[in-house]
From TrEMBL:
Species name: Shewanella inventionis
Catalyzed reactions per annotation: 3'-dephospho-CoA + ATP = ADP + CoA + H(+)
Binding site for ATP: A15, S16, G17, K18, T19, T20
Enzyme's top EC category: transferase
Lineage, opening ranks: Bacteria, Pseudomonadati, Pseudomonadota, Gammaproteobacteria, Alteromonadales
Listed HAMAP family: Dephospho_CoA_kinase (MF_00376)
Keyword Lipid biosynthesis: no
Protein name (record): Dephospho-CoA kinase
Protein family according to the UniProt entry: Belongs to the CoaE family.
Pfam families: CoaE
Length: 209
């Protein structure tokens, strides 16, 4: 099931400001489909995802109230490639399916799909165009340390596991520079919003094959 709507795949490295940019598009009435939110929904208490995880890893990965203990699950898969692959193979199709359902149920002129690992997980094949929020690695490190209260070493470890800044930019159809102030960001979003409206209108006027 491919989306029939114009979908913008919004991505960027850690602490690049994806949420800020997505929310600026939302101010224009554009609906957001957020992979991180959906990833939490598919393992909520009572979900098929959580039932499968519990059956596989045992009830030790549950909190006292029956919710998923994320820290316990992380420790199970952190250094075990096989278990990590098992978990990804379970959750990725569920997340993908829910994202597509939300896109197809949306009513705005186009949709912003916010996916941190858009290129890494080959989810760019679900979107009409790609938009990368770009900042320097130095800013990523300082913003993440401040936001998450983690060490520089931990942030650099995360950065090393993600696609490089240059690789991401090379793959992007559009790039937003988030190294300036909010007004610079707003003007870039305003310009892209007009472009996406135009492209969405062109897509909806195309005859179906």
């Amino acid at each position: 099931m491919m989306p029939t709507k114009f979908v913008v795949g919004l991505t960027g490295g850690i602490a690049s400001g994806k949420t800020t940019v997505a929310n600026l598009f939302a101010e224009y009435g554009i609906q957001l489909v957020d992979a991180d939110i959906i990833a939490r929904v598919v393992v909520e208490k009572g979900s098929k995802g959580l039932a499968a995880i519990t059956e596989h890893f045992g009830s030790a990965i549950l909190l006292a109230d029956g919710q998923l203990d994320r820290a316990a699950l992380r420790s199970k898969v952190f250094n075990d490639e096989q278990q990590r692959l098992w978990l990804n193979n379970l959750l990725h199709p569920m997340i993908r399916q829910t994202m597509l359902e939300q896109v197809n149920a949306s009513t705005s002129a186009y949709v912003i799909m916010v996916v941190p690992l858009l290129f890494e997980n080959q989810l760019d094949n679900l979107v009409s165009t790609t938009l990368v929020v770009d900042i320097s690695p130095e800013l990523q490190v300082s913003r993440t340390m401040k936001r998450d209260g983690v060490s520089q070493q931990q942030v650099e470890h995360i950065l090393a596991s993600q696609m490089s800044r240059q690789q991401r930019i090379d793959k992007a159809d559009h790039v937003i520079d988030n190294q300036g102030d909010i007004n610079l960001l707003r003007s870039q979003v305003a310009r892209l919003h007009q472009l996406f409206l135009q492209q969405a209108a062109e897509l909806s006027n195309k005859p179906n094959d």
